[in-house]
Design a protein that fits this description.
Blueprint: H1 5-16, E1 26-28, E2 33-36, E3 44-46, H2 59-69, H3 89-102, E4 105-109, H4 112-123, E5 128-133, H5 138-146, E6 150-154, H6 159-171, E7 177-183, H7 195-204, E8 208-213, H8 228-231, E9 240-244, E10 254-258, H9 260-269, H10 271-274, H11 281-295, H12 298-317, E11 328-334, H13 336-348, E12 351-352, E13 354-356, E14 366-371, H14 378-381
Parallel strand pairs: 3-12, 5-6, 5-7, 7-8, 8-9
Antiparallel strand pairs: 1-2, 2-3, 4-10, 9-10, 11-14, 13-14
Helix pairs in contact: 3-11, 4-5
The protein binds pyridoxal-5'-phosphate.
Length: 388
């Protein structure tokens, strides 16, 4: 008997459900166009990446970075965790920039995933309660699972239900800490959290601390691009402000903005930080460079907001279902098969958009997700409306 047969059967089932995943060979063309080789002939406008400022293909920026950084001998590998010998000047400089920009302590991790699977398990114990929005990212769900904390969920963006849970938690003498966990921009619906309202709740309930993941907000929102928390004027009130460099910053890595004592505590207790080789110095240097540029990209942010609003309005005007409030614009079609067909039609017309199906989103809410960036213009996008 084949020991692997079970896995082959599971895969066959996924295939039967139209849910089989595979890597694609993608060729990158200039300025945000991609080719799917070898099957598809023409270049398609990439509407599926998370590169919200278009930095990953900004040639002038890359040239400037190459000219300023050079390539020191130590750049390509850090050779150990940060607590052994893996800490380089580049990492310290990046954390310094973050700390200065957010006016609080900053800690950098190898990815947003590392941040989310490490922070909550380090900070919580059996007397902690984690209350999370039901649509938080898989990495935070895994972090909650790895923790010893008790856990509750509230329906997506339902702050009345959240307050009910907070009331109960406040009255429970066995609980000494309550962590409310949410995202600022949700990537499957493109909706944006009301962080001001959540902060108002925190101020009513003394045990509460706020944990907000800004993976899709950093670079895009706020005068200096520091995220939705900056745009809504609540940066200092978010106890644990998490983000990732893989999206608008066009790099890789994760970060936490927090109180200095929390930073020190995590350096001593957080397993993915202690037991994983640090990012290459090259990466930290590029992140530093791109983040610094990002701080001044007010025009790009304003352009992206305008473009997103125009696209959302045009989609609604066609009678389609879309409740996005951001630069991530999903069109909800309902049935898996319809979303698959619509995405194929858009791709055939030169727009690389992808269907999102159950189990990533609830049954009957399959969608095609359009992810915009600041280097796009309306002339490129408008023809897409003929294929929605
Ligand atoms: C992408 C993402 C992450 C993971 O970040 P990586 O740096 O890609 O590992 C975490 N949280 C959210 C909300 C994300 O969208």
């Amino acid at each position: 008997m084949d020991a692997y047969q079970h896995y082959a059967e599971q895969l066959a089932e996924l295939q039967a459900q139209n849910n089989y995943r595979r890597f694609k060979a993608i060729e990158r063309e200039d300025s945000g166009y991609i080719k799917l080789s070898p099957q598809a002939p023409g270049a398609m406008l990439d509407l599926s990446s998370n590169d919200y400022l278009g930095l990953s293909f900004d040639k002038a920026l890359l040239e400037e970075f190459k000219a300023t950084y050079g390539l020191p001998m130590h750049a390509l590998g850090s050779a150990s965790s940060r607590l052994l010998t893996g800490q380089f000047e580049e990492h310290a400089k990046l954390e310094g920039l973050l700390a200065e920009s957010f006016a609080r302590a900053a800690l950098v991790f190898n990815s947003g995933y590392h941040a989310n699977i490490g922070i909550l398990p380090a900070l919580t114990d059996e007397q902690s309660l984690i209350i999370s929005d039901e649509l938080i990212h898989a990495s935070i769900i895994d972090g909650i699972r790895l923790s010893k904390a008790q856990r509750r969920r509230f329906e997506h963006q339902d702050l009345a239900q959240l307050e009910q849970l907070l009331l109960e938690a406040e009255a429970d003498p066995k609980l000494n800490k309550v962590f409310v966990v949410l995202e600022s921009v949700y990537s499957m619906d493109g909706d944006v959290a009301d962080l001001q309202a959540v902060v108002a709740l925190k101020q009513k309930y003394p045990k509460v601390m706020l944990y907000v993941d800004e993976a899709h907000g950093i670079g895009v929102y706020g005068e200096r691009g520091l995220g939705v928390a900056e745009a809504q004027g609540v940066l200092p009130q978010i106890d644990f402000l998490v983000g990732a460099f893989g999206k608008a910053i066009a790099s890789v890595g994760g970060y936490l903005i927090c109180a200095p004592v929390i930073r020190e505590y995590l350096i001593n207790k957080m397993r993915p930080l202690i037991f994983s080789t640090n990012l290459p110095p090259l990466n930290a240097a590029w992140t530093y460079f791109a983040f610094k540029k990002m701080l001044g990209m007010q025009q790009e942010r304003a352009h992206l907001q305008g473009l997103s609003r125009d696209l959302r309005q045009a989609i609604l005007a066609k009678g389609l279902d879309c409740h996005s409030q951001s630069h991530i614009v999903p069109i909800i079609y309902g049935a898996n098969q319809l979303a698959i067909e619509k995405a194929a039609t858009m791709q055939g017309a030169g727009f690389y958009a992808l269907p999102i199906r159950y189990p990533t989103v609830p049954q009957g809410q399959a969608r095609v997700r359009l992810s915009l960036h600041a280097a796009l213009d309306w002339q490129q996008l408008e023809p897409l409306l003929g294929y929605c």
